[in-house]
Structure prediction request, 183 residues.
Amino acid sequence: MALNDVKMKSNMEKPLPKTAICPCGSGRRYGGCCRKKNIEYLISNKGEVSRRMPLSRELVEMLEEHQRNFVKTFGRKTGKHDLVLFDQFLTGFDETDEILEKISKDVGVRDQVIFATRRTGFIVGEHSKKIMPDVDYQEWEDAIDEYFELKESGHDPFHVFTYLTGDEFEKFKDCRSQIKDII
Prediction:
């Protein structure tokens, strides 16, 4: 038996048993939770749980484009410890969030959806909701509720993403608006 065969056998994955506690964090059994949504979890011989997901053609194309950009930027292929979406570290998280927020608003995405995406990291649509673990979807719903609670209390919900006080944030927005008008 070759060394590669031994490595492959030690890392083999099998489907998570229906009776196991669901990895999504709901506390329910996998068979009565995420498995009903066709969310497939695998377990390795080492006990490591991973989630198998099909990738859309668009996502595959986007990942391939990021691979090409990585090679152009760093002059080498990605390694197993490299980030897939490395660009955000070249521009900074704040700038990336601002760019995504502007694009989202330009195409008509509602503010509460932009807020929930920034808060949770999830992009939830009609189809993705069906394949999300319940705890992740609940986190999304909680972020939507938080947006409206902040709005009703007279605060700008996006203030929570800064280290500024409420008054400082309002002055910052005013300053940013004036700078954009000048530019």
